[in-house]
Amino acid sequence: MNSSVSVRDEVYSAIVVEYKGATGADPSGAPGENAKDVEKYIKEKITGAYSDGAASLAQAALLTPEQAALVEKARWSKMAAQTSQSAAFMRSLANRMSDAIAQSGGASTAQESMIINNIRRADVLLAEANGYISDALDSGASAKAIRAVSQNLGAAAALYGLAMGGINDGLQGVGEGGANIIGGWAAGAVAEFYIAPLITSYMVGMGVSATAAGIASGAAVIAAGFVGGLIGQALYESGVTETIGLNKLIQVAMDNGLGAFIQGLGEFGGWLGIELYDLLHPSENGVANNVNENFRNAANFVPRRDPLTLDLDGDGIETVSASNGVLFDHDGDGVKSGSGWVAADDGLLVMDRNGNGTIDGGGELFGADTILADGRKAGSGFEALRDLDENGDGIFSKTDAHFNDVRIWRDLNQDGISQAGELFRLSELGIASITLKPTTTADLDLGNGNVVDNRGTYTRLDGTTGLAGDLQLAVNNFFRDFSGSLDPVMVTDEVAQLPNLKGSGAVRDLEEAASLSQDLLADVQALTPGTSREAMRAALDTMLADWAGTSTMKSSEDILETSSSTKRTVYYHGAVPASVTAQGAAAVEAWDKQQHAQLASIIAILEKFNGSSLISYQNDQVSTGGNTYSWKNVTRADGSVEQVMNVVLQPEQISALLSAYANLKESVYAGLVTQTRLHDYVDSLAMRVADGKLQFDISGLAAMLESKAQSNLGEGLQDALDLYKYAGSFLAEAGWDGPALLNDWIESASTTSAGIEAIAFAGIKTVSGSFTGMSADDLVWGESVNDIIHGGGGNDLIGGGAGSDTLYGDAGNDRLFGGSGDDSLFGGDGSDILFGGAGNDTLSGGTGTDRLEGGAGDDVLSVSGDAQNSVLAGGTGNDTLSGSYNSDTYLFNQGDGRDTVVETSYNSGAVDKVVFGEGILASTVQVFREGLDVVLSIGDGADSVRLKNWLTSGGAENGSVSIEQFVFADGTIWTPATLKTKGLTTLGTSGDDKLTGWNGNDILFGGAGNDTLSGGTGTDRLEGGAGDDVLSVSGDAQNSVLAGGTGNDTLSGSYNSDTYLFNQGDGRDTVLETSTYSGAKDRIVFDKDLAVDDTFFSRSGDDLSIAIRGSDDQLTVSGWFASSSSQVEYLQFKDKTVASSEVAALIAAMATTSSSSAPLVSSNSQEAKLLVASSIV
Q: Contact, 306 vs 367, CB < 8 A?
């Protein structure tokens, strides 16, 4: 994509300098070299908080209340820190860009203003998110907090993506990557691998039926994985952006007043598709946001509201997008709609006219919905306030009767609902008066689709002035709430038994709409269990038309054709082909009618589901796509005159409309399929208790599928495919292996003509040899030979079948299944799911957010360095898993064998995890070191995870390959700090080993042979074992333990406190002690059966010798009498502990009584030996 709008070099440089300042990078160098770094830095900061917060909420659901509280608080705290860091970066970035513009001279361009405003909005959103996080820390994660944080983080990610998308070619990758898309897929991955199974168990534990629980978790995956992942992609995949480029689209949109539509395109990922609260209510899943995105790509009208607002903090009036989650009833009909809104640091002028204590409608703001004393509606906010100027002096002040009735509403939590603590008297905020005549009527674009229409001033009590603005707040009717409607709908008992879906725009939820329409009710009732895929999809066109038909909103076609007493006809169509034009007027009119027949019903449905019109209609003219159309008089053959308007839609608009309608159908099908035609399959799931644990029993589902396949293999394949697509993740957690079942059925069926017909009926194309798909969503399965299959464009499902196959997903979000054989799977672009199946497979996920599952065999799994939030599961066998430069999750279950993780997280902010499955507890894991690798050995060692090159050659933790979290089944989480505290265990061999510790805690076992053990820093434990060993720790080590074992060993301690162990039979050991630090307390611990009288103390030169009577064992402390730093403070025996100050006296006493003492084995008592204690102290 080529940029058509450049940004001055100073602004570009400001971005790079700010990024480098935040990350500590060298600020020198060419800006273009760091564009990708800028992209990754921000996306990681936002999406890391996004997915981490979501995972914490899901995990907390299954823990005990005490565990849940601790886990949840820790996760929310981490999320708050990440969010604050991102907010500070964006705030500083926007300020630096503004300064760069000021220093370079001249006012900012519309493009630059948009970029800066979007970044400032993202900063505000992140700050607001932290407000909700604080609430969650104080009182727990309420549904409101979950929803609000998701909304704010999603919108912030999208705003940054849009801002960066507007900068020149060097940063274009940020726009194409789309922080909103990354955020959507991050939440999708969390839902698929955390939320689905946890929701199921949580709901069952609360007494919810297994059927409902299954639907809930399946819907969680659909809503966050399928819907959330697609949100925002239309911005980049639609024909509009492919043809003219993102920047030109934004510029043209702003020139035509379309800023709200375009800037809002990416913001929905945080509002609906990734709303965790709704994941627990699957019956309310509704219209996917990409329906709105594609429709808004085709539309060009931005409805606005205009409340009077005060700039309270002096930095200009700040607003948020209409797609940011605030719903407000501007027109007083009880229905709240998505509204642009004033940020928390500024305030709306309001008056509680109905005296109910809240501001609950546009009539209580000061704007176009205010009813004046003469019964008219105000034309502006200033006119609305002027109605209260009783003395007519043009100033609203305390001399006017209603001055104390007017309030300033600071919506501190940005929920669109006034609370008592958010309403302030004017005097409380130091406001003395408001001038009622604007000083300028020039529009000022605030970004996010919001505009200041008129600007004036207010005066503070101290005489200073501030800005009063008459806002034009954008409205997005796609988001709405009918709960307060003045025309409520009672859901009938008959409808209450049926599935429900959320509506959108001007369309009520399905249960309310079906209560209004017998036709719609019949449509839903017809979707019974067992309905075929074709029948259900075919029924959706009628159902959508009937559902939209319950809306009171008129379509643009209805409005246009009823706008005059003269008969009027409108035709929506594309550009007339030259071949049709050549055939004459009659052919052109026939072509127009044919196109209109195809498009008009789609447009009408989409307009109602979006709550806004495709066109702008003013002064009897229609504007859309940058063009204006008027009525033309046409005289018919009978002499009658008719007015006709041909609205020519651009190819990009038609493409966006068709995509929006297809997405609408798909989202409705996805929301209903498990509740209708596949209901009996899901209902067949049973719960049972095994080994004291609640588990799913899928035998009923498997039997139903087998029965369907026996009676009608084609329909059985369709059902299995839909179960896999729409509930596959949940069913996989329950134990159903969908890909393997499909592979077995297809392989078996492909051997008979009837089976081949069934496969074709199910929409599966079987191939033998080589095949390349097109841009559509391909469903392809290989036969028994070694196939090479390319999916091409589209979201493909490809199975290799038998043989050693090579599968390429190419573009799109693909699912590849290798089947039996040694297969090679390449996901390519997009977010892919790869299953290796049996055999030694090679899986390469490519870019995107991928899930790779090796299956049985020794597999090699990898993703691109630029991949984001991927999941890798090796399965059984000894597998190698290689992650990206960003955050990755590695899954490991009991029986998975010995896997190796190769991590390369070069990007700051990456959070990599190893997640252990059921039955693997922290208490069962031992941590070993082998060379530069760290090995987590589980149980008896049959299972292990090797962390490749965890250590540097210098013995430090290798940060670029580190795993940030190790998550266990009981909720325990280890970090690298945990490993440092626990210590790494290194085992020697039977030979002469040289073992060196790292910068953390070590446990070194020399084993047999003459070994050299160097503990390094930390708190170490060194055990020499058999042989003449040399043991030492760094001078800075702390509280280490050294045990020489059998043989003649040398033990060297640190400058701090050390403990030396010596047992009977340990031989002749030497201790070299150098405690130079004050406060160091060294200790020699003798065999637990040795008393002081069992030993003989003597001096040999400067050394202290302690011989064990009746043996050759002897311990020598070198330099004891030469320096106090070489002394050991305490000598611990069975019967007493001897202090270093007592040693001289003890030597003298033993010397005088030696003749009567028990003889030593050696004639030279000072050659007696002492062995280091074998027990662990």
A: yes
Parallel, antiparallel or unpaired: strands 880-882 and 898-902: parallel
E strands present in 1111-1153: 1114-1117, 1130-1132, 1137-1139
Cα–Cα distance, 203 to 685 (Å, whole number) = 14
State how far the Cα of 870 lies from the Cα of 915, in Å rounded to an integer: 13
| CA-based torsion, 223, 670, 206, 277: positive or negative | positive
Q: Quote the tokens at residue 638.
A: 């009978």
Q: Report the C-alpha gap between 480 and 500 in whole angstroms.
A: 17
Exposure on the CB side of residue 346, measured as CA atoms within 13 A: 22
Q: Rounded to an integer, what distance in angstroms lies between the CA atom of residue 806 and that of residue 843?
A: 10
Backbone angles phi, psi at 422, to 5 degrees: -105, -5
pLDDT in tens, 281-325: 233 344 444 444 444 444 433 444 568 889 988 888 888 877 667
Q: Which residues, including other chains, have CB under 8 Å from residue 501's CB and lie 6 or more apart? A: 283, 284, 285, 286, 287, 509, 510, 668, 671, 672
pLDDT band at 469 (very low <50, low <70, confident <90, very high): confident
Residue 367: strand, helix, or coil: coil
Contacts of 1078 by beta carbon, 8 Å cutoff, 6+ apart: none
Alpha helix stretches (DSSP H) within 698-792: 699-711, 713-734, 738-749, 753-761
For 445, phi then psi, to 5°, come to: -75, 120
Would you place residue 131 in the very low, low, confident or very high pLDDT band (cuts 50, 70, 90)?
A: low
571, two tokens: 């035709």
What is the distance between the alpha carbons of residues 243 and 228, in angstroms, rounded to a whole number? Answer: 25
Stretch 264-286: mean pLDDT, rounded?
A: 29
Residue 322, Cα to own-chain centre: how many angstroms? 23
| Average pLDDT score over residue span 804-829 | 89
Report whether 384 contacts 367 (CB < 8 A): yes
- Contact in structure between 515 and 508 (CB atoms under 8 Å): no
pLDDT digits (tens, 9 = 90+) for 233-262: 322 332 222 222 323 323 332 333 222 222
Question: What single-letter DSSP state applies at residue 338?
Answer: E
Tokens of 529: 């269990």
pLDDT tens digits along 621-651:
888 877 889 999 998 888 889 999 999 988 8
Could you tell me whether strands 1058-1062 and 1040-1043 are parallel, antiparallel, or unpaired per DSSP bridges?
parallel
- Beta carbons within 10 angstroms of residue 589's beta carbon: 16
Whether 354 contacts 343, CB under 8 Å:
no
Q: Can you tell me whether residue 756 is helix, strand or coil?
A: helix
- Judge contact between 147 and 324, C-beta under 8 A: no
Mean pLDDT of the chain: 75
Question: With bands split at pLDDT 50, 70 and 90, how would you rate the model's confidence at 694?
Answer: low
Give the max Cα distance, the chain.
Answer: 145
**Mean pLDDT, residues 1008-1017:** 90
Give the burial class of 106: count Cβ atoms within 10 A of its Cβ; 0-12 exposed, 13-18 middle, 19 or more buried. exposed
pLDDT tens, residue by residue, 346-391: 899 999 988 888 888 888 889 888 888 888 888 888 988 999 998 8
Instruction: Return the sign of the alpha-carbon dihedral for residues 1143, 1146, 1148, 1154.
Output: negative
* pLDDT of amino acid 716: 93
Structure tokens that stand for 860 in this block: 């090699």
Query: Quick one: pLDDT at residue 532?
Result: 92
Is the confidence at residue 1026, as pLDDT, over 90?
yes
